[in-house]
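During the no-cost extension, the postdoctoral fellow (Dr. R.K.) reprocessed legacy sequence entries with the updated structure-token encoder. One reprocessed record is reproduced below for audit purposes.
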Amino acid sequence: MYKGYRGAQNPLPYVHEPPKHQETPAGLTSQLLVATGTANLRKGPSTRAEIAFKVKAEDTLEVLGETTDWYHARIADGNFFIHKSLARPL
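Re-encoded structure tokens follow.
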């Protein structure tokens, strides 16, 4: 934080920030179709994140963005994450 006699430096460059989800790219459709029998919607992009609830096959979700392996999606009850292997773009 302190270098030589110049005083304190801005600590912001040293703070670690978790990766943020990306906004929906222009080429990505704005809806997803659940492709499996049932799928867990989670509160975070991890299998360790709490399961908010389950959706059934053929349910549709609105895409808000995506990470490497997860879609950030919205349904009537809120915003959640679903693994990309469990849903496909419409």
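The chain has one domain: 20-89. The mean pLDDT is 80. The remaining legacy entries will be reprocessed before the final report is submitted.
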